[in-house]
Amino acid sequence: MTFAWPALLAALLLVPLAVAVYVQATRRRTRYAVPFTNVDVLAGVVAGVSSWRQRVAPALYLLGLAALLLGLARPHAMVPVPREDASVVLILDTSGSMRATDVTPSRMEAAQGAARTFVDQLPPRFQVGLVSFASEAQVLAQPTVDRVAVDEAIEGLRPEGATAMGDAVVEALGLTDSAGGTGGGSGGRSGGQAQENRPLSAILLLSDGANTSGEVEPLDAAQRARKRGVPVYTIALGTPGGVVEAPDANGVMRLVPVPPDPETLQGIAEVTDAQSFTAPTEDDLQAIYEHLGSRIGFVEERREVTAAFAGAGLLLLGAAFAAGSAWGRRFP
Question: What is the pLDDT of residue 327?
């Protein structure tokens, strides 16, 4: 925290001065109470107000005074401010392992529902792009403010194929230069009206398995994102016990384990100075998206917070007055 008028911090010396006055006044009352001859009456009065209640009002007064004095120095602090213009690219795994039902009703359906919720809760002026990946990565929606187009692209996802995770990150990075364009998806979906160019604020990567396909290794793609200054938040979907039915070499259907790969996803997040999460249930996935929506939707800016200190000081003084009135205690 910094102060525009730091010299006025000297006014805080009034706080210890007020404490000294309070202590002195308390001692004076004690000296006056000693000669009181009716000890039974005096004991009844003292017992009527507990010791901690006697200190609440003075403590609130002192805290309120300190807050008001700090406000005089015009404090500035880093505070979260809602973003208005930014671009986010959502990367969704559509490999065959997303058919697993260890996440209700299935990994794919849970991912689709949570993704739609995430997209719809972002600020209206946010541009959102969508990349899917299985054996290959595919851009389904350029960054756009058209939520309907993105929701339709998410709804059309179907699980099939291998996992080209690294290629998907590279495709998402390629959308940086197109952010703010007309945003037509590769499937002919409309991207809405043209917008001004906006920086790619973040990539959200959801996958449920290890990289098995593609030209670029996931951590190499993460290094590219780091050089561009784009954080890649990752979500490992599913449980270690997840399975899907798949034909073996003889064409016989068998249950194949499809555990998630949190280690690789955590590595991607760490390289890009982002966060990694695991989502073993649909509720967990929803909670993660809500957290990321709040995180991405705000940016830290240095702002003057004098009003906050003044408001807190007045509230504390009001609470002190109320406590003193309720418990018959006044600040000396």
Answer: 63
Q: How far is CA 209 from CA 27, 63, 246, 248, 297, in A?
A: 71, 54, 15, 19, 28
Q: What is the 3-state secondary structure (H, E, C) of 307-324?
A: HHHHHHHHHHHHHHHHHH
Residues 241 and 170 in one domain: yes
pLDDT at 182: 39
pLDDT of residue 188: 38
189 and 250 in a single domain? The answer is yes
Q: Give the chain's residues under pLDDT 50.
A: 36, 42, 46-49, 180-196, 330-332
Strand arrangement of the beta sheet that strand 87-93 belongs to: 137-144, 127-133, 87-93, 200-207, 232-237, 276-279
List phi, psi (to 5°) of 71.
Answer: -60, -30
Do residues 123 and 226 both lie within one domain? yes
Domain match, 273 and 315 both: no
Q: What is the pLDDT of residue 190?
A: 38
Q: How far apart are CA 254 and CA 268, in angstroms?
A: 32
173 to 46, 103, 222, 224, 315: CA distances (angstroms): 72, 29, 10, 8, 48
In angstroms, the CA 314 to CA 262 distance is: 49
Residue 278 lies in a domain: yes
C-beta separation of 14 from 65 below 8 A: yes
In a 3-state reduction of DSSP, which class is residue 110? helix
Report d(CA 255, CA 221) in Å as an integer. 32
Identify the DSSP state of 258: -
Rounded distance between C-alpha atoms, residue 275 and residue 271, angstroms: 10
Q: How many CB atoms lie within 10 A of CB 229?
A: 11
What's the total number of domains in the chain?
2
Q: Which two tokens stand for residue 329?
A: 């205690």
Kindly give the pairing relationship between strand 2-3 and strand 75-82: antiparallel
Q: What is the pLDDT of residues 151-185, one digit of tens each?
A: 999 999 999 999 999 999 999 999 865 554 434 44
Answer for the pair 105, 33: CB distance below 8 angstroms, yes or no: no
Bridge partner list, 206: 92, 235
